[in-house]
Amino acid sequence: MAYQTVFKRYELKYLMTAEQKQRVLASMEPYMIMDKYGDSTIRNIYFDTDDYILARHSILKPDFKEKLRIRSYSQADADSTVFVELKRKYDHVVYKRRVGLPEIAAMDWICGTGHNEPETDPQKGDEIRYFRNYYKDLRPAAFISYERQAYKLRKTEDIPPELRGNIGSDTGFRVTFDQNILFRDYDMSLRSEVYGERILPEGMTLMEIKCSGGIPLWMVKVLSEEYIYKTSFSKYGTAYTNKLFNNSATAEWQPAQAKELKEEQHAGQFTGKHLRYTTCYIN
User: For residue 197, what are the contacts with CB-CB under 8 A and spacing of at least 6?
Assistant: First the structure.
């Protein structure tokens, strides 16, 4: 299967309740369909140094930050194709380089346990090798998994004619919903089952809008109607902060909390005080 290897886009993040998610999905229905990954359980292994220099730098809210991970879209075996991803963010724009390799080759390459360098695209491979050599003692630091629903724009001819003027010019516009986000710092294998500590409370969803320019007006409308506002949220940064403070999102999300959250959002005074976990907000 062909896959995209280079990305340059904005990634905008929104936290929402289950009820808000359903209303956003209803607004998306005329314009978007699930992409080729559809419903998937994503597994990620994030790499860092022994003193967590990448996580610590990230939570300082720098203008530039970077991370390295290996990702799979299902439970892997040694020969499954997984993706080594180098992700950088500068001035709010995300740049990502991705190399597909068999799981055993990817882990050997990044962990430095293999005897031979894998064959990769020269530019992308060189960037990842430079990163790995610069941070000399990289090791698996966090296993983060989540259930994702991923959507892309419908073909223009599949959108009702009266709505086609609302789709905008960004043909690569995508939306993802992540829930049941789990973290652990042991059993670092993409071949393993998903389990660990919650990063978000039960019932909460992280929506990400991935775009190269503006957001279509129909999406702006539903976000405004639901008082859903952009936030800065890092899965790995939150996992590191939770580990540091020995905190986790084990509490259930109560309807009364959701109501008060919506009132705060409506008033433009969202503080996140009802999200009873330690989170990392990153610009």
Answer: 182, 183, 184, 242, 248, 249, 250
